[in-house]
Amino acid sequence: MGESAVPGPPLRPSRAIQIEQSLSLLSGLVGHAQESFFRCLARGIARRPIVAIVATLTVYVGCLPGMLLLGGSESMFGILTINTGFLDTFTFTLTDEYKDYMRATDVFPDTRSLVFIAKPLDGRSLISSAVLRQIRKAEVQIQNDSRFESIQGHQLGFHDVGERSSSGSPCVTRSATITLLGNDVATRLSELEALERNVSAPSNAAVQTVVAAMNMQQRASLPLLIASSRPFPGPGATELSLSEWLSASTSAMSTFTLMDTDDGMRFEKQAAKDINDNGYPENTVVRINQFSSSTIATESLLIGIDHVPLIAITISIMAGYLVLMLGTDTRIPGNSQVKVLLGGTCIPGLSGLASFGLLGYLGHGVSVLGTMVPFLGLAVGVDIIFLMVSSVNAVGPDVTDMEEVMVRALPRGGRAATTTTLTSVSAFSIAAATSSDLPSFLWFNIGLVLVLIMNWIGMVVMFPAMITLNQRKMTAREEPKSGLAAKARLLMGCGRKLKGVMKAKLGFAVEHSLPFQISGASAWLALTALGIYFGLQVERGMPDTYLVTDSSRVNAYFEDVESSFVGSLPMELGLVFDAPRTLDPSYRSRLSELIATLNNRSDLALPVDCWLDRAVGSLSSSASMCEVDSAILTYLNDSVTGAASGRDAKGGVTEHLRAARCRAFLWQPTDAAKRSEQALNIVSQVREGFPELDAIPYHLSFPTQTARYRIIKDKIFSTAGFAFIGVFLAVLITMPVHLAFLAVGNVMAVTCVLFGFMWLCGITSNLISFTVCVMAIGFCVDYSCHIVHFADHDVPPGTPWDRRMRLSLESCSFDVLQGCSTAFLGVAMLGFGSAQAFRIFALLSVIITLVGGFFALIGLPCLLALLARTWRACTSDTATEDFVSAAMLSAVPTNGGTEAAKLVDIRAYLRSVERLSL
């Protein structure tokens, strides 16, 4: 008699399977809730379609007045204002460089600057009376002639808005002509003309005359204003050396320092306009190009204005494409839906305007990046129209009651639209949350979130109501045989023909064609691997010209600067000493050591100008408070030194001296990598080398350029990573966990290919590619979600994955293709934009739509079908049973203790989790 089997304790599935089952149950419950919601919504829409349309339009119209409340510094068409301040819109506000700059400028308010570069033409020498006379004419135009009307209605000029070094002193300027010729420019120009007319005078007589009359202060200022092909010999060099250096000069630069006020900004614009209108850039003697603190702001405004007609063109193209693809693709043959499609195309446009209004109600504004929001709203919004039309047509002509039609169609189309909208909203919301330190990008993402939400409302309420009105009295009609109507219907039948071909061919090839499976899967794997390998090698940096319109004269300014100063520009570095402890001998000693250290830098343009060190640096270690006070007061009250240094002191003396500012003139590289390296070196040298001084080294380029260069690549990867997590969690709400992994994995592959393409084209990690990277996640997750959603929706359990892919492609491949096409059309017009940044944006966006569509329609389906084929070839029912180990047996809950009973339960259990395997 055999041993009786003793039943063991009840066995439980593994933790991973329990989690999967719970998540799948949650997604199932959410799916049922969505279907119930959309069935109820469909009944309401079908019964009161006009009410649904009016209610949706009311929501849109109610948002529009908020556009008047948008905050900004520049006005477009007198209605929409945008933020154009470079420091406020394109700077990471949590970086040390930004915090230092804000700390320093809070004590010593920063100034604005207007600068122009003059380049002689036709081989002329810079030291010629004709060239210098034209340069002086431009300087006088800025200093004396340019006038603007203030808000109060007063006519103001440079002396009203120029920064003053102390009360009653002239505005701060660095004049190339005064540096070369002294204060009596007119007399010296006459002398130069006389020398040029004297045929017996040597060829270099003018240069020698200029150098001979220069004092030491003029000589020291030469490298800041004059560009030469030779290295500067130093202010103490011989007249011959200075003459040779000046003879090789290629251009001159003059700068004008303004107070950082609204009036200062208005003067900049007026002065720039006057220079351009007076024809200086086209002068036959010298070319003069200007740049100011508000130049990029002005260019941003022009770019935004240029986007408006492109948006109108995009809407028109999108409407035409919809009519071409879906004009006659109605549920009941012989009818059309052109008016419905034209109305549906307006929904993303209204959503874009509504999002601007909502941003205004929130008390915020948009930057030049925000002007792309309508394009992206069209790109991701119009594809829902294809889903809705497809869902309605799937009901078939046999159902005559429109309420029943919508009850069947809206849950199918609404769920798909909700899934794709939710994932995109998640991606952009996470991107906004993780980039709150970059204001322009933050509100760009929030604007996209608002566009998507408003578009979803319109597409699931307003558009179904329009379809209901259009089809309510439809009857089957015969197709016209001839005439214009027949030709129009033939043209509008392209969509139906393409849909039929894709339904018959693509799914079949994915399921049955081994070469097609191998080709598609190989392309997916190869492109992803290459993208990962080369994407990690993408460089960083964004040239200033990216945000300048092609027709702008600023491009010529950058070209002249680059050719004249050969890779570096003079930079005025600020050093703020917070509450300097001038009574402390060790503090005074360390201050002198810091100044000496900076004066020994190889990139120094001029000796450090530090009034505080000159005042107290030479005092003995036993100096009393009275001696220190006397030294500082004597220096600040001096008629010569006080005028130049009064603006660099805050508070009284000794304990009451709140802050002091010193200035170092360095050569700053124009190359982004070298510029960032220099900034880090300066900060390290001051902060780490002399921590007891509590000095703040700062310059506007540190937060706006070098800090961004330093962190942009890490920021892209971290933001993308968080966006992937957010999208995955959003997909889990509406899909089983294995489908969520597939969808997000496919999007990650697309993002890898995007980085590989950037490396191939030499596009760097910058603000534009940062934007596109996050946008790629929000765009491409839609395509992938459609494919994996319809691979599971209404598909019997146990269906192999090659068959699932065929069913999915037959259901939604046409819709996914149209989603890619509309996304392409939505961003393609940016390729005709007036600035390089947005052409790069368009190019990268086109790549993600093409690659995203290919990976969703061919790459991922072929990979899954090939794996399913391989699984079947390597596995049979018997092999599967042999493969089950004791660990698997212990994980399966069984009702009995016999081996036969266990095998029965194992088979049932494997069938219940078959969706996890390929």
From TrEMBL:
Pfam family for this entry, one: Sterol-sensing
Keyword terms of this UniProt record: Membrane, Transmembrane, Transmembrane helix
Transmembrane segments: 49-70, 308-328, 340-363, 375-395, 441-467, 716-733, 739-760, 767-791, 840-868
Lineage: superkingdom: Eukaryota
UniProt domain SSD: residue ranges: 307-469
Cellular component terms (Gene Ontology): membrane
Family matches, as PANTHER family: PATCHED-RELATED, PATCHED-RELATED, ISOFORM A
Family: Belongs to the patched family.
Name of protein: Npc1b protein
Organism the protein comes from: Symbiodinium pilosum
Gene transcribed to yield this protein: Npc1b
